[in-house]
Amino acid sequence: MSTEQPPVRIRLYVSTNWVGADDEEYIEIPRDEWDDMTPAERRAYLDEEANTFMANCVEYGWIIPDDNDRAATEDGTR
Predict the structure, then answer these.
(1) pTM of the prediction?
(2) Tens of pLDDT, residues 19-35
(3) Does residue 75 sit within a domain?
(4) 18 assigned to some structural domain
(5) Are 70 and 58 a contacting pair, CB within 8 Å?
(6) Closest CA to 26 of 10, 8, 45
(7) What DSSP string describes 48-77?
(8) For the chain, what is the domain count?
């Protein structure tokens, strides 16, 4: 009998105002790796995954940043 735990599965989701343009992605990380992370490491991991997901959504045109988002990104504040 295996004692291996299922991976931690996290859903990333973005909803847009366009019909049918919502997107989601699932990421999985082995349970033992997740359990070995400190809360700060978990947060950093999730931040990185979410930032990559959102950048892909912008690149594919599913999300169009408003002027405030563009300004914040361009001056390095985000």
Answers:
(1) 0.64
(2) 565 677 888 999 999 99
(3) no
(4) yes
(5) no
(6) 10
(7) HHHHHHHHHHHHTTS----HHHHHHHHTT-
(8) 1
